[in-house]
Each structure stands twice: as structure tokens, then as C-alpha cells.
Amino acid sequence: MASAGRGMLGPAGNCCQSFAPINWGECPHGVEMLRSVPSLVAPMVCGEGEVPMTETKKVLAANDAFYRAFGAGDYAAMDGLWSRQAPVACTHPGWTALTERARIMESWRSILSDVPGSSVSCFDAEAHVVGATAFVTCNEAVGHNMLAATNVFVREDGEWRMVHHHASPVARAYVKGGPTRDDRIH
For 71-89, b where at least 16 C-beta lie within 10 A, e where not — what string? Predict the structure, then answer.
């Protein structure tokens, strides 16, 4: 199932004061934090930090709504999930990047007209909240195809709205933890 968020721990053990990464554990205030992104400097996710855990759950709910709309072929729901104010981008598997909202929504209209009744699911979702922006890394199963995906959201009018979706095919049957030596491209 989905994870709750990411956290950071300061050098003095005060998770709300600094941005040094930590692994799974709890902040000194007793709120669960998750693995940090080593290269990302982000605000805290804890009871006294800048990003409440409830925001992470809201991001995961927005991500779930995206996959429900996708699986149901519901264009109106999909349209309602995408930002109308922030710049947006979308890269479907095998496509070049789309960067205008009208083109992105037209791509979804086309894709969703072929999807009703198709099996679309999201799994291994992890949300990462960074102020008013969040991203979710996850895996998708679309029919018999496995994809790795990243979905980016921003706070807009009090709701989390999608600003970016990128999905890429997984080269081999899904292997948690990344490619083996034989799978490497670089």
C-alpha cells in the first residue's frame, strides 16, 4: 500500500530545525517519518514541522483519484484533477513531452476513450511533500504492461492538483529495487 511521506532529522536530533536526511523512524515528537531523498533538501514532515502528515494523505488521495479516473475512462474527473493555474507537463509512455494543458487534456481524452473496462492500477505509491508541492513515485499496471510513474502535484485553491505525470515502461517483469546488472542501459 501507499506510504505516508518523507522526513528529515537535524544534526541535534530536532527534525523541525534542519534538513539532514534520515531513514525510517520517528521524529522526536512521535510522528512517523519516512525515508528521505538524499539529494533533496525539503522541509520536515512531523508533528511540529512545516508539512503535516495529513497533507501527505491528501496527496495520496489525489493520486488515487487520478488512477480511478484513468481506470474508469472518466475524462471529466481527469480534467478536474489537473491544475488550471500552474504550468503542466505530461509524458505518456513512448510519447514526447506535452507541455500545454489543452494538448495534455486532449491526449487524455484520446487515451481514456480507449480505456473503459481496462485494468489500470497503481501500487507501491510513496508521497513526498515539499511545501506546496508534492510528488508521488509509484508503479502502474495498465492491462499487462508494467510502468514506473512519477506524479507531481501543487496546492491550488486548497486542493492538490496534478501538474506533471510521467510513465515509462519497465524493461523486464517488475523487480522491486531497480534493474539487475543485465538490465542496465548505462
Answer: bbbbbeebbebbbeebebe
Helix (H, G, I), strand (E, B) or coil at 169: strand
Q: Residue 149 in contact with residue 70, Cβ under 8 Å?
A: no
The string of DSSP letters for 139-161 reads: EEEETTEEEEEEEEEEEETTEEE
pLDDT, greater one: 36 or 139: 139
Structural domains in the chain, CATH included, are 1-50 (no CATH), 53-169 (3.10.450.50)
- Residue that has been written with the C-alpha cell 510502468 in this structure: 147
Distance CA 25, CA 49 (A): 15
Claim: this prediction has a pTM higher than 0.85: no
CA 82, CA 110: separation in Å to the nearest integer?
16
Burial (0-12, 13-18, 19+ Cβ within 10 Å), 142: buried
